[in-house]
Amino acid sequence: MEAADFIVIGAGIAGASVGYELSLGGKVVVLEMESSAGYHSTGRSAAVMSENYGPALWSRLVTSSRGFLETPPDGFTDVPLITPRGALFLARKEEQAQLFNQADELLRRGASIKVTTAEEALRYCPVLRASEFVSALYEPDCKDIDTNALLAGYLKGLRVRGGHFVPDAKVESLAHSGGVWTVTTPRGVFEAPVIVNAAGGWVQQIAALAGLSYRNVIPFRRTAVVFDPPAGSEIHTWPMTFDVAETFYFKPEAGRIMVSPVDMAPSDPCDAQADELEVAIAIDRIHRYTTMEVQRVTHKWGGLRTFAPDHEPVIGRDPEQPSFIWLAGQGGNGVMAGAAAARLAASFALNAPIPADIAALGITAEKVSPGRACVIDPAADAPVVGTIEAFE
Ligand SMILES: Cc1cc2nc3c(=O)[nH]c(=O)nc-3n(C[C@H](O)[C@H](O)[C@H](O)COP(=O)(O)OP(=O)(O)OC[C@H]3O[C@@H](n4cnc5c(N)ncnc54)[C@H](O)[C@@H]3O)c2cc1C
C-alpha cells in the first residue's frame, strides 16, 4: 500500500498538470491505466491554442493559460511549448454577427485580432475559395502547442517535487472510509484523503466506482485526416483555418495538412478510431472550401472530446463528496486551457481560494461546479442542459 495526500486518476494533460500543481502542496500519486501518459485524447489533438476557441469559460481559461505556455517555470522544458501559427475564422453572410461578437469579446480580453474581408484573407491562406465566405477574423497570436513537451514537463516536474506517476495502473475500485480513499489497481493499492478525477472520457465511470451520482459528462468522437499539400506550396506560414459555423478546420501539420470535419458523435469511452464517413466528409470540405486536391490520405485518427451538456468546465468538488474533485469536460480546450484548469482544480483540492487571475475573468466555483444542472432529472428521465450565464 502506498499513502499519499492526493491521488489523481488519469495521466492525460489534465491529470499530469493537476498532479504537478498539487505536488507543491503534498505527496501526489498519478494513476494511469495505459502504459504511457497521453495515449488517449491528449495525444490526438490538433495541438493549437486559440483564445477564440470554445465556449465562454473555457476560452477564458485559455487566456489564463497563455502566460504559462509562453514562459513556463525554469527547468520545465528545454524547448518552446508554443510556436507561432495564427488562426483564421471565416464567416458566411449569415454568420457575420457571430464573427463580430467574437471580435468584440477578444478585444475585451486584450487579444490582438484583425477583422477583414474573405478576399483579403487570401493573404494568410492562399488556397481558400474566398467566394464561399464574406468576412474573416485573423488571430495572429494563435499558437501551435508542443503537447509532448508540455506533458513531459508536467510529469518531470511532478517527479522532481516528489510525486509518483504510475502507468499500467487502471483504477478498478474506489472506497471511502474514515476520511481516506482506498484505490485498487493492478499496480497495488493507494490511499489518500483526496481524489482528483481526471480520467477524460472515463470520468463518469470513475464517479460510478466511487458510488457518486451521474453528472452527464460524456465523450464524443472527433476524426482527423492528414494529406499531402499541393506541391511547392509554402504551407508552414498558413494559419489554422476554421469556419465560424464549425463545419471544418485545417492546419499545417509537420509538412502536411490536417483537416477535421469537426464531427461530434457520442461515444463510449474507448480507443477512438477515425470514422470512414467523416474522413470522406473532411475531404469533401477541403474540395469545397479550398483549391486543394486531396490525392492521398497519409494518416487519420479518432479521439474523444468530453463535454458536460453546456460544454463548460466541470471543475470542483463533487456535491455529494467534497474530497472527490472533478477536472473534466474539457471538450476541445483541454490542452490549450490545461494550465489554468489545473490551477483551478488544485485550488479546490487544497481548499484554497480560486487563483486571483482566474477569478478576475469571472470564473466562480458555482459556474464550473460539477453540481450545476448537469445531472439526470429523475422526473424527466433525461439530461438537463446546464445553464451558464453569459460573462458580462
Ligand atoms: C481531433 C481532436 C483535436 C483536438 N484539438 C485540440 C486542440 O487543438 N487544442 C486543445 O487544447 N485541445 C484539443 N482537443 C481536446 C483535447 O485533446 C482534450 O481536451 C484533452 O486532451 C483532454 O485531456 P484529458 O487529460 O482530460 O483526457 P485524456 O488525455 O483522455 O486523459 C485521460 C486519461 O485517463 C486515463 N484513465 C481512464 N480511466 C482510467 C482508470 N480507470 N484508471 C486509470 N487511468 C484511467 C486514460 O487512459 C487517459 O490517459 C482535441 C481533441 C481531439 C479529439
Question: Can you describe this structure?
Answer:
It contains 9 helices and 24 strands. By secondary structure, it is of the alpha+beta class. The protein folds into 2 domains: 184 residues, FAD/NAD(P)-binding domain; 144 residues, D-Amino Acid Oxidase, subunit A, domain 2 (D-Amino Acid Oxidase, Chain A, domain 2, 2-Layer Sandwich). The C terminus is likely disordered. Strands 6, 7, 8, 15, 16, 17, 18, 19 and 20 form a 9-stranded mixed beta sheet that branches. 24% of the residues lie in helices and 28% in strands. The structure holds flavin-adenine dinucleotide (FAD). The site of flavin-adenine dinucleotide has 39 residues, from helix 1, strand 15 and strand 20.
Short structural summary:
With 392 residues, the chain is α+β, with helices and mostly antiparallel strands.
Topology, please?
Elements: E1 2-3, E2 6-9, H1 13-22, E3 28-31, E4 48-49, H2 56-70, E5 82-84, E6 87-91, H3 96-108, E7 114-117, E8 135-139, E9 143-145, H4 147-160, E10 164-166, E11 173-177, E12 180-185, E13 188-192, E14 194-197, H5 203-209, E15 218-227, E16 240-243, E17 249-253, E18 256-260, E19 265-266, H6 276-289, E20 297-307, E21 314-318, E22 321-328, H7 338-349, H8 356-359, H9 365-368, E23 376-377, E24 382-383
Parallel strand pairs: 1-13, 2-3, 2-14, 3-10, 6-16, 14-22
Antiparallel strand pairs: 4-9, 5-9, 6-8, 7-8, 11-12, 12-13, 15-18, 15-19, 15-20, 16-17, 17-18, 21-22, 23-24
This protein binds flavin-adenine dinucleotide (FAD).
